[in-house]
Amino acid sequence: MSPERLLLTSIHDVGPRSETQVDRLRDHLAAHVPVEKIAMLVVPDHWGEAPLKAGTPFAARLRDWADAGAEMFVHGWYHRDTSAHESFAARMKAKHMTASEGEFLGLDEETAYQRMTQGRALIEDIIGRPVAGFIAPAWLYGPGAHAAMARAGFAMAEDHWRVWQPGAVERPLASGPVITWASRSKPRIASSLFAAWALPTVLRWKKVARVAVHPGDTGVPALLESIGATLRRMTRSHRPGRYAELL
């Protein structure tokens, strides 16, 4: 393990509807990464069916996790894409890169800004501290989302290939593909298992490497086994740390 190389680990889609799976993922990751260094991406109202509310038992757990050191990111609002995409490229991303969950890919600036800032206010009120940043569902951003982030003043954002500081001029913080897994279909499971096997070799000499897991991973034993194996490999070359160390 090199002290100069940083491993960032995150759990996506954290919210009341995924509480059981998040608990399982935290326990699974904690065998390899200190639990206080596992970032959490919080969805304020997953698919409009699971609103995060102050004063609830889950909100109390979220604050306890933050108090223990977990970085909290705003992860969209609904995590659901309802936009009518105008460009061919956006339609292809929306169709093939995610199961209708790229919420911020087609939003205009004002709608994106409203959802970002309301999500931040809700989560910060619950955890009693600033959020670490904003990460769009499915790591997909449209022009409106980029413009909104520049206005909102988030400390950082990330997608599949990079981490950056939003602003009128975006400041790069890290680059390289994130290692993640897909559980929606057998072909996606197979391709993500292959990627998780291959990418640690590619990322071994990168200054920053990222691993991201999702609640759906807990339903596929092969994915859980791959997650553990990947973290065992990555922690040989990279020190588990926090996103804030990039700033």
Structure in words:
By secondary structure, the protein is α/β, with parallel strands linked by helices. It has a single domain (2-246), classed as Glycoside hydrolase/deacetylase (TIM Barrel). The protein is built from seven helices and eleven strands. Strands 1, 2, 5, 6, 10 and 11 form a six-stranded parallel β-sheet that branches. A three-stranded antiparallel β-sheet has the order 7-8-9, with no helix packed on it. Helix 4 crosses helix 5 (143-152) and helix 6 runs parallel beside helix 7 (221-237). It starts with a strand and ends in a 7-residue tail after the last strand. The relative contact order is 0.18. This is DUF2334 domain-containing protein. Pfam families: DUF2334 (PF10096). It comes from Sphingobium nicotianae.
Topology:
Elements: E1 2-14, H1 19-29, E2 38-42, E3 45-46, E4 50-51, H2 57-67, E5 72-74, H3 88-96, H4 109-127, E6 133-134, H5 143-152, E7 157-158, E8 162-165, E9 171-175, H6 186-203, E10 208-213, H7 221-237, E11 238-240
Parallel strand pairs: 1-2, 1-10, 1-11, 2-5, 5-6
Antiparallel strand pairs: 3-4, 7-8, 8-9
Helix pairs in contact: 4-5, 6-7
Average pLDDT taken over every residue: 92
Assess the beta-strand content as a share of residues: 15-25%
Round the Cα radius of gyration to an integer and report it. 17 Å
Main sheet attributes: strand count, strand direction, barrel closure: 6 strands, parallel
Q: Provide the number of structural domains.
A: 1
Estimated structural class: alpha/beta
The CATH fourth-level homologous superfamily: Glycoside hydrolase/deacetylase
According to CATH, the fold-level topology is TIM Barrel
Count the DSSP helices: 7
Order of helices and strands: EHEEEHEHHEHEEEHEHE
In CATH terms, what is the architecture?
Alpha-Beta Barrel
CATH class annotation: Alpha Beta
Protein name: DUF2334 domain-containing protein
Pfam family, one: DUF2334
InterPro entries: DUF2334, Glyco_hydro/deAcase_b/a-brl
GO biological process, one term: carbohydrate metabolic process
